[in-house]
Design brief:
Chain lengths: ~300, ~350, ~425
């Protein structure tokens, strides 16, 4: 067994999986707060990537300045999307809401292709050293930046949901909207905030992918990887989403190893997360860390 | 959540009246006239065809996509499930029909229903685990089945021809093959009428009402003695049968089946057709399909109009319009859902009710 | 009911307006492009190439005075839509179609043969080069005879053969010990798969060791896992079969991983915008060129500047490699139409006959830019030699448009070889 390759694939899988976890975290945030399945998550990541790229290259702002500006823009965009598109649909059947996010994703894809063209655009070099060696594997500094920032975000979330008023309001809304509303929580504000935070964190993921492989429509494909990650981790838990992302990343690395060394199917790496997803749905549908929905008559 | 099926003021006074497919004499007449028009559409008067090949091709496409959309509506609209993998079933039907008629010489008019049955089997298998899941988990499970089936299509060379696709022979009736479009049109029309009548009748039967009950309030349905799992799996099976037949029709129309055509985008298009047309409405499936398929034509016409209005046919302008066309499709879906969440069928019903109750419009 | 009234009025207007346009007394030609679909990164360059070429032909005398009435449609790489538009154009009396990609071309082989309408594609699959069904592959039933398919460029199979022939020489020149290892990298789709068998067969014949292929998605993504596998395989020559978008991501990922391999690229696998996006990682890549790059000191450049001016009056635009390739297809068609018209047979069969009489033909005024093509009624492999280019990156490519970077010399494309590919009978349709 080629142990160097194995180790490298495992580490690479975990690093990439951390990114999936970040995007999955955004998805679960929206789902927990407003019960909306956001099929446009990949497009939010892409918008973040393009917005930051544009700020850096066209306006010439240094990265440490344009990144926060981009995040502020994404915050406002998240609020706008929620207010304009999703608020009128509160109370509609779930399938309509899924469809509306799909319509949004089609709209955004075309809009971004129009605004920024269809060619892949590279980011200017942001870090002094573009890659760092970890256990014999070259890892892009962008991934390390995202690891650090996402850890900070997770700690921030933990504090936010446990100790701040708005955080507790969000948890209350996620638990039972009607009761929260009757206690004076503005459910509309909670929804808007959930979308805004999700958009901001998606932008982080977008910037990382952009730094690593250039900004193009393919950045949005990470939005599809979200589904296996949240299913494995459980839809109701943010920590579960992150862990789910890591597991999926690890699974991809292992799949590539077995495919390259023994099986030679060719595309096991692409298909393995979906088989895993099906398996989990059959055995443990609420995910490894989700809560069982108890139905009361 | 129960969607109100009738606007206020529209009552049924007997069980027989409640069970009819056509709520009034008027709708029956309109339906018959519509069918007559559809029958004469591909004919030519004095050598010049009534309708150009292009529009005929579009109507044929509406025909078989309409069958598939109806299948999805049975699953999503009538039984309250959700499926993001519908195009994979369409693909399975297409490949199966091409396989049976191309490699094994089964006559095409037989291979299409057989393909439907085979796809129904597949749907039952997929439905077995799916019946235990609800809401988002079901959506994601069907999404996974979409990817898994697509992977199967591109790998199973013995069945689908792998990445190079499969050839589907044309329809041969009594020894002569039908003239490409004008002849095939009638095949599609016949199948479409059959499938639509079948669906409308299904909704009148006990099974149909049971499915609606499962959608509306599954706890009460279970208390009344309806076996939830049985009906959910049945709904998957029936919707897959429709998808299989539609796939077979599509295969023999394009005469070439390739795995690339059956992707997630197509599944999403079906969902859009069903939602825009109206969940839980048989006629709505057809309206929604027509809307989704005619929308790009309409936009393309606008593009052509702006081009011919003297603006130079420069490549830059055409490109910008191409993106606007795509954006318009996404925007149309979003706007429709915001302003017309119950779909075209509901709006049509409200129009009819308006005229029926005039001047007491509600 | 206001909303309903509005809906009804707009529906009525929409239906009234959506009537098809009247056919006109011109030469109808269909033109498929992809600006918004899966291959739009290449389509965005080739589309304008074709449109500008059409406009230039019309502005310079047309077809013996007749105007080309072309309709450009963005079909978003969806086969169904392409079939529909084909039927429409057939109804309107089109006598030729400028097609686009693998999916639409392969789907229409049967239709166009039946309807006798020549189809020029930017899909250069080797499967389309057998017009009469005489090849071994056709006899095995693996391909369909394609009498009405034409493309004036090296096929994917001939392209990979040229690369492998060069690689064999390169290995000897580098003093490599033992058998060099060859690997095919691509997605499981018709376009990347088209040259796979041809490449691997020739590689084996020339003494390469063929390593199991690795898949990477056409859509792009992070490919470090595939790059690690590539590194572990020990390959010396890696053929990238996908389009530019995916190759950019792959080259960047592999540069980070530190893979040491000579990259070989398909004809649509790398172009100037792709070089800009990839940066230093693309340095040294060898690609199938098929024709000269923009700004070459050849006679044909004047004509192409005129063609480019059709959409860029200032004349400053730098046109990437795919632009010229696409424009050439329109020019071959126009020349064939002129010949057919002079012979009094301006229809599909006449155009086919005119094309199949071309021997080492270069459209007027394009010497050096469009390749010299030869078509016969038994063999649609149009070029007998394939030019190869090497990509060179001298600095950072993130600032400035790709045209400026080429002008400044930060990015360079060097044509360094012209590999002769014999028209072997066993390679027909393969």
């Amino acid at each position: 067994m080629n142990s160097t390759l194995f180790l490298q694939l495992v580490i690479n899988g975990l690093i990439v999986g951390a990114l999936y976890g970040v995007v999955a975290m955004c998805f679960v945030l929206i789902y927990k707060a407003s019960q909306v399945v956001n099929f446009a998550q990949g497009e939010l990541v892409l918008i973040g990537a393009w917005a930051c790229w544009w700020l850096v290259t066209s306006l010439g702002l240094p990265f440490w300045l344009s990144f926060p500006v981009c995040l502020i823009f994404m915050f406002l965009l998240g609020v706008l999307v929620q207010v304009v598109v999703l608020r009128p649909l509160i109370g509609e059947p779930a399938v309509s809401i899924v469809m509306v996010t799909i319509g949004l994703s089609i709209f955004f894809q075309a809009l971004l292709k129009w605004l920024f063209g269809v060619f892949t655009q590279p980011y200017p070099p942001v870090f002094a050293t573009s890659s760092v060696k970890i256990l014999g594997l070259n890892v892009e500094s962008a991934y390390l930046m995202s690891l650090v920032i996402s850890l900070a975000i997770m700690l921030g979330f933990a504090w936010f949901f446990k100790y701040s008023r708005m955080g507790m309001a969000m948890r209350a809304t996620a638990f039972d909207q009607q009761v929260a509303q009757s206690l004076g929580v503005s459910v509309k504000q909670v929804f808007a905030l959930a979308w805004a935070i999700s958009a901001v964190v998606s932008a982080l993921a977008g910037v990382v992918v952009g730094l690593v492989s250039g900004v193009s429509a393919s950045v949005a494909t990470v939005g599809v990887k979200v589904f296996p990650a949240v299913i494995v981790g459980g839809l109701e838990s943010i920590i579960g989403a992150v862990l789910g992302g890591l597991i999926i990343g690890l699974l991809e690395g292992l799949a590539q190893f077995f495919d390259a060394e023994y099986l030679h199917f060719g595309n096991l790496i692409t298909i393995a997360p979906f088989y895993a997803m099906l398996l989990i749905l059959l055995i443990k549908p609420y995910g490894l860390f989700g809560t069982r929905n108890i139905e009361r008559v | 959540m129960a969607v109100s099926m009738r606007p206020a003021g529209d009552f049924r006074l007997s069980y027989a009246a409640d069970r009819t497919i056509f709520p009034s004499r008027g709708s029956l007449v309109v339906c018959v006239i519509g069918l007559a028009i559809l029958c004469i559409l591909p004919l030519s008067i004095a050598g010049k065809p009534l309708v150009s090949s292009y529009w005929l091709a579009l109507v044929i496409q509406i025909g078989y996509y309409g069958i598939a959309a109806l299948g999805l509506n049975i699953l999503v609209g009538f039984t309250g499930q959700i499926s993001l993998g519908h195009s994979a079933f369409l693909g399975f039907g297409a490949f199966m029909s091409a396989f049976l008629s191309g490699r094994h010489g089964v006559p095409v008019l037989l291979s299409i229903p057989l393909a439907g049955l085979a796809t129904a089997m597949l749907g039952l298998i997929v439905g077995l685990p799916a019946a235990r899941l609800k809401g988002l988990y079901l959506a994601i499970a069907t999404l996974a089945s979409q990817f898994v089936l697509q992977d199967f299509f591109s790998r199973a060379e013995w069945f689908t021809g792998g990445a190079s696709g499969a050839n589907a022979p044309p329809v041969v009736l009594f020894g002569t093959s039908l003239p490409a479009d004008r002849g095939y049109y009638y095949v599609v029309l016949a199948f479409a009428v059959l499938m639509y009548v079948f669906a409308a009748n299904l909704m009148r039967t006990r099974d149909g009402r049971a499915m609606v009950a499962v959608r509306d309030h599954y706890l009460s349905a279970e208390i009344m003695g309806i076996n939830l799992t049985y009906y959910r799996i049945l709904a998957f099976g029936i919707s897959s049968f429709y998808a299989g037949v539609a796939g077979g029709l599509m295969a023999h129309y394009t005469s070439f089946v390739s795995a690339e055509a059956f992707d997630l985008l197509l599944s999403i298009n079906f969902l859009a057709m069903v939602i825009i047309g109206g969940l839980g409405s048989v006629m709505g499936s057809l309206l929604g399909t027509a809307f989704i398929l005619v929308l790009p034509e309409f936009l393309q016409f606008l593009v052509r109009l702006t081009q011919s209005l003297g603006v130079t046919q420069s490549s830059g302008f055409t490109e910008g319009l191409a993106y606007m066309k795509e954006m318009a499709i996404g925007l149309a879906i979003v706007l429709f859902l915001i302003f017309e969440p119950e779909g075209l069928a509901a709006r049509w019903r409200k129009i009819k009710a308006y005229w029926k109750l005039y001047p007491f419009s509600y | 009911m206001k909303r309903t009234r509005l809906l009804m009025i707009s529906a009525a207007v929409g239906l009234a307006l959506a009537a098809p346009a009247q056919a006109q007394q011109k030469i109808r030609v269909g033109n498929l492009v992809d600006y918004t679909g899966a291959t739009s990164s290449v389509g965005k360059i080739t589309g304008p190439g074709k449109v500008d070429a059409f406009a230039w032909v019309n502005a310079n005398g047309g077809i013996n005075g007749k105007v080309l009435d072309f309709e450009t449609v963005d079909y978003g790489y969806q086969t169904q839509r392409s079939i529909q538009f084909y039927k429409k154009w057939k109804d309107e009396g089109a006598i030729a179609i400028q097609g686009y990609g693998t999916n639409d071309t392969e789907a229409m082989v049967g239709f166009i043969a039946e309807d006798k309408i020549p189809y020029f594609s930017l899909s250069l699959s080797g499967h389309l080069t057998d017009p009469s069904g005489a090849s071994a592959k056709a006899k095995e039933g693996k391909i369909k005879p394609a009498p009405y398919n034409f493309f004036g460029a090296p096929s994917y199979s001939d392209g990979v053969r040229a690369l492998i022939l060069w690689a064999a020489e390169d290995w000897k020149k580098k003093g490599g010990q033992g058998k060099p290892k060859y690997i095919h990298l691509g997605d499981n789709h018709p376009y990347p798969l088209a040259p796979k068998e041809a490449g691997e067969t020739l590689a084996r014949e020339l003494g390469f060791e063929v390593v199991p292929s690795i898949q990477y998605a056409l859509a792009g993504g992070d490919f470090k896992a595939q790059c690690l596998a590539l590194q572990a395989s020990g390959a010396n020559y890696a053929f990238l079969a996908n389009t530019t978008g995916a190759n950019v991501a792959l080259l960047r990922s592999c540069a980070t991983v530190g893979v040491n391999v000579q990259y070989l690229s398909n004809i649509w696998g790398m172009d100037e915008p792709g070089m800009k996006a990839t940066g230093k990682a693309v340095d040294g890549l060898v690609l199938v060129a098929g024709q000269a790059q923009w700004g070459s000191e050849v006679a044909g450049m004047t004509t192409f500047r005129a063609i480019s001016k059709m959409s860029d009056p200032a004349g400053n635009a730098y046109r990437a490699l795919p632009y010229v390739r696409a424009a050439c297809q329109v020019l071959y068609m126009a020349e064939a139409m002129r010949t057919a018209d002079k012979a009094g047979k301006l229809n599909g069969e006449g155009i086919k006959a005119a094309l199949e009489n071309m021997r080492d033909f270069v459209p007027f005024g394009t010497t050096g830019m469009c390749p010299a093509v030869t078509w016969t009624d038994k063999d649609h492999r149009s070029v007998g030699s394939v030019s190869l280019m090497r990509a060179r990156i001298a600095g950072d490519t993130d600032q400035g448009e790709f045209g400026d970077l080429m002008a400044k010399g930060t990015m360079k494309l060097e044509t360094f070889a012209d590999v002769k590919i014999e028209r072997k009978p066993e390679w027909l349709g393969f």
